[in-house]
Design a protein that fits this description.
disordered C terminus, sterol binding, single chain, Ganglioside M2 Activator Protein, Chain: A, Ig_E-set, mainly beta, lipid transport, 8 strands, three-stranded antiparallel sheet, ML_dom, NPC2-like
Length: about 160
Amino acid sequence: MDVVVPSQFKLTLFFLFAACLLVPSIQVKDLQYCDKEGNYVVKVDGIKISPDPVVKSKPATFSISASTDKAISGGKLALEVSYFEIPVHTETHSLCDETSCPISAGKFVLSHTQTLPGIAPPGLYKLKMKMEDENKNQLTCISFKFNIGRGSSVSSI
């Protein structure tokens, strides 16, 4: 018995399959601005984490695509990582260490690579990032969740 599949169904199936291929490229969960209205000079367009999930004792790169309407000559980034809403790590970086300065009006990328400690438990973490200019004016504040995988911190020989 031959089954006839309508072309509309085939088209729907194709788009569903294509959407499934795109799902692995979604890197971040629950990107939120600290100010619910997002009234910041710097707007975050997207975040990519590689690898995702993050692997303990291996370098992980966090790349944040952003845009601004004004030039930024420098400033700082303050990062806070929480596990089950408990702060477990904080650090501060010069903005110019994470991207080229000065930042011209338009699109730019912040990129930070870090090796997470082997003792970090697997699970869902939250990262909060605040960006300030040289005069301590807040340029943006975001938070997002990321996973640390269950992979072994000991390499096999």
